[in-house]
Amino acid sequence: MNEKVRAWLYLVLVALVVLGVTAAVFLVPYLKDRNQANRISDLPIDTLGATPEEAGCKPVATKKVRLSNVSRHVDNGQALTYDEAPPAFGKHWAVPLALSEYRVLFTVEDRPAKELLVHSLEHGYTVLWYDAVLARDPEQMQVLKDVMTEFQVKDAVVAAPWTAKDGGPFPAGTHVALTHWSVEDGEKGVWRYCGGVSGAAIKEFIIEYPHTDAPEGGFS
Questions:
Q1: What does the DSSP assignment read for 49-110?
Q2: Whole-angstrom Cα distance, residue 208 to residue 23?
Q3: Which of 123, 134, 160, 165 could share a disulfide with 175, CB 3.0–4.6 Å?
């Protein structure tokens, strides 16, 4: 084999390796997102709780994110306040939750700091916040537990309480807030408030705003 042929084969091999790595970079997140979307679509939660209309779910609301990349992270332990109740984006603690620290349903006793959950939003999680009114309602909490039992930690969906210590109340008549930090058509926070738990509304929201639709989507 002469030098020209050897050099040509080497270049072909390098090109194939580069193509393989490039395909993996783009294909793996795509397949992960598609698999998650398919799994979420198959979850039997549509009939749990009320319909979006019966639950008094408001239309989806959005707000443009105006944060530089360098100003988003603060030291863990630094208390932060948010303009919205609850936040769908914002500054947050620099070191995120470990995968082992996640639960699909947090309580007041085991919920991590809100600043950590905002970091989870940056990583593509949907956070379903529920207020103290809903937390005191056994029937609604049972529906919420039934809905969240269908999720796995890898689905990047968590439910967590919002308390008076965290900030102001939800809009009048609402006790559930679905939140996501989206990058579709520009970075924005996304909210959908409901008066009660609606499995159908939760499912619709998660399908519309998947794990990879976030500034650092697809991270754990």
A1: B--TTTTTPPPPEEEE----GGGSEE-TT-----SSSS-SS--EESSPPPGGG--SB--TTT
A2: 25
A3: 134
Q: Measured between alpha carbons, how far is 49 from 68 in angstroms, rounded to an integer? A: 39
Tell me the one-letter amino acid at 28: V
The pTM of this model reads: 0.83
Exposure letters 190-212 (e unless 16+ CB within 10 A, then b):
bbbbbbbbbbbbbbbbbebbbbb
Cβ atoms of 84 and 191 closer than 8 Å: yes
Judge whether residue 160 has pLDDT over 90: yes
Domain count along the chain? 1
pLDDT at 73 over 50: yes
pLDDT above 70 coverage of the chain, percent:
82
pLDDT one-digit tens code per residue, 39-68: 888 999 999 999 999 999 999 999 999 887
Q: Are strands 126-130 and 176-182 parallel, antiparallel or unpaired?
A: antiparallel
Inside any domain, residue 217: no
How far is Cα 62 from Cα 182, in angstroms, rounded to an integer? 9
